Amino acid sequence: MSSGVAARRDAKKLVRSPSGLRMVPEHRAFGSPFGLEEPQWVPDKECPRCMQCDAKFDFITRKHHCRRCGKCFCDRCCSQKVPLRRMCFVDPVRQCADCALVSHREAEFYDKQLKVLLSGAPFLVTFGDLEKPEAMVCRLSNNQRCLVLDGDSHLEIEIAHVCTVQILTEGFTPGGSTRATGMLLQYMVPGAEAATQLRLMSGEDSSGSKRQAAAWLAAMHKATKLLYESRDQ
User: Fold this and answer.
1) What does the pLDDT read at residue 18?
2) pLDDT band at residue 205, thresholds of 50, 70 and 90?
3) Which of 23, 174, 182, 211 is least crowded, fewest Cβ atoms below 10 Å from its Cβ?
4) Measured CA angle at 217 (ends 216, 222), to 5 deg
5) Rounded distance, CA 67 to CA 90, Å?
6) How far is it, in rounded angstroms, from Cα 184 to Cα 201?
7) Partners of residue 183 on adjacent β-strands
8) Three-state DSSP class for residue 136
9) pTM of the prediction?
């Protein structure tokens, strides 16, 4: 990929919406697959009462819209201002109690797991029905749109083309949970009728590499959940 094309993909612009300032991709087609669209606000005339506590709106009890769900609430039920990175807001925005809980949980992905995915990890990668795996580093691209695999060969898989993700586990840790050791990935190649399968397994070369791979797989598991939520929106 040329530097000019990469720059266009990563270019962003600042826009103002009724909900606040957002830093969004300059070209909509290059938006993050984990992103969410801003909701349509419930029209003021359709919500004479708080949609949580049923308080009647008047000059004292003012109405506020949750920036995540678009529903209408009183100040008591919609007082929290929480970061909403999936909608690219620059500053924390007003959200109802239920949405604020979800946004707080998602903040862990952006603060921790996303950094792990961008850093990458070493794996033994098997393509399709081939028997011999190739040592490669798998990472998420900076614009979050592709899985990038680098080794003797190079491959980029668009997240939008991924059909299924299955995390492979084995054994039990002292805490009673399984340990992630690999991943089966199915994705569509443009023009192909059937999905292509990719198998990533952590190597046996060092405990440090295995821990790095396990952390990357755990982050990918979280990312997969967000991806499916985005598709179901």
Assistant:
1) 86
2) low
3) 174
4) 100
5) 13
6) 9
7) 167, 200
8) strand
9) 0.78
pLDDT at 8: 60
Residue 189 DSSP SS3: coil
Token couple for 216? 């990357």
Residues 202, 182 contacting (CB under 8 angstroms):
yes
What residues are paired with 166 via a beta bridge? 184
Is residue 12 within 8 Å of residue 19, measured between CB atoms?
no
The mean per-residue pLDDT over the stretch 27-41 comes to 85
What CA–CA distance (Å, rounded) separates 132 from 223? 28
- For residues 175 and 50, the model is more confident at 50
Q: Which amino acid is at 88?
A: C
Please provide the size of the chain in residues. 233
Work out whether the CA dihedral 84, 90, 95, 101 comes out positive or negative: positive
Please name the residues in contact with 211: beta carbons below 8 A apart, sequence gap of 6 or more: none
Among residues 48, 107, 43, 47, which one has the least CA distance to residue 80? 107
Give me the half-sphere count of Cα atoms (radius 13 Å) on the Cβ side of residue 94. 18
